[in-house]
Amino acid sequence: MNTPALSPALAPGRVATLQPIQAEVLPPTGRTREHPALRSHHLRRMEQVLDHIETHLSEDLGLEKLADLAAFSPFHFHRLFLAWTGETLKEFVRRRRLESAAGRLRHCPNEKVTAVSLNCGFASPEAFARAFREHFGMTPSQWRSGGWIGWRTPANDCWRTKHFRVEVKRIEAREVLYMRERGDYASHAHSLWLRFIPWVDSLGLGGQPLMSVGLDDPSITPASNCRMDACVELPQEWNDPGLRTMRRQLPAQWAACLKFDGPAADIGGGWEALLNEWLPGSSFRLGEGHFFERYDRREGAPGGERVSCELCMPVEPA
To answer: Is Nucleotide-binding set as a keyword in this record (predicted)?
Structure first.
């Protein structure tokens, strides 16, 4: 199950998700410098495993199965996974299941706690309740009833006094090249785009839409574990010059979209307006998928102090 994650924009003080490379070399990131043993082909396979985990939280995510998916021995996979994420596989899967469940408990009030626990991969409601209390210090029901308020950092609330227009539209499936960064969204987003945009331009993709995708909810996930993707949408029949890049297909989805044009520091309020002002009174509920920001380069590039973009939240009919 792919549970929605909030945009990087909700990080405190921030909103918001490859210079030319050789065929075997991926663009540099902080993680690869910290762990030089993780070669480019290792990184691609590890990120593919992380993407698989995100979309299969309700399924078996054991060591042997995921090691086989990555084409590593279980021993080698365990060692690389720990080096790459700073967590064992068991710790990572447990945390992502709990964080995904916490997001659904907060934003999907009509979804029963039992359904949330099973859809996020817990064997029983009792096991879920124990794990949730250990991680968040409260029961799932206490969290849903407002316990999350003391856990999160409030975003800029300037949108509460503004009139805003939300458009619900279908976003068609698209293929993207992407670069992933880990860490506090507020301090890492700018450097990510500084690396990503020149690489995109070098491939002749400068006119294509850009996307910032937040894979984790910064109001739930520790800042050091948050992941964001800088993406460029590929035109049909794009001729790959032979680079072994991070590339994936994004599924079609319905999204509630809000146009944002202003200081990057205010964009978190835009996400709060979608979630807490528009969604409760609409005929929609939160859908599957990730929140993302879509940028048209003709209107401005991401990563600056002032941004122009479209905030897109996955929805489905209630």
So the answer is: no
